[in-house]
Amino acid sequence: MMAVLKAGGACVHLGATQPIARLAQIVLDSGTKVLLADPQHSEIFQDLVEVITIAPEFLENLHSRDPLLMVRPSNPAFVLLTSGSTRKPKGIIVEHGSLCSSSKAHGTNRKVEPHTRLLQFAAYTFDVSVADIFTTLQRGGCICVPSEEERTNDLAGAIKRMNVNYGFLTPTVAGLLKPTDVPGLRTLILGEEMLTRTIFKLEPLEWTSS
């Protein structure tokens, strides 16, 4: 994501668990010219667009170079897609300037600081992930990314192993955590769902409903 933005491009996130037909339609509708994928998913789109497989050997052979373009605040940074639950998904364009200003405001409001170790739990197809990543980076914090196995089966263990102290979760997911299992988690933001009474058992965490 950082490489694409620095090059003056815009990111459109694709979810690996989404139907192939939906992903292909997003690629076509967005006018995507290049797709970055891991080895597991790189073959899916070979017939639609140029695919670059991001693997260790590819990264090892890269050479750093100066940016070729002057990136302006009005350049698109992300295209975030609506769920499409009622009709065809719509793309919402977020410009570089908007991304920077929203990250700055979120960082101040949510008290993200250099010592922040944020759990990057939200799927990349949700706007929450963009706020998590770029607000934390802008403030000098650390982004802690669990594996899919940890996300599903051992979230508390991942939080503890990575010394996570900050997170944004839905009340449903947060309600599965026991405070004694995540002693280092000090700030928890809750959103995307109605707040439930069971979440109050997470005291003494500092939490904010969003």
Automatic annotation (TrEMBL):
One Pfam family in the UniProt entry: AMP-binding
Every AMP-dependent synthetase/ligase domain range: 1-198
Keyword vocabulary terms for this entry: Ligase, Phosphopantetheine, Phosphoprotein
InterPro entries: AMP-dep_synth/lig_dom, ANL_N_sf
Residue ranges of coiled coil: none
PANTHER family, A to Z: NONRIBOSOMAL PEPTIDE SYNTHASE ATNA-RELATED, NONRIBOSOMAL PEPTIDE SYNTHETASE
Stated name of the protein: AMP-dependent synthetase/ligase domain-containing protein
Origin species: Lepraria finkii
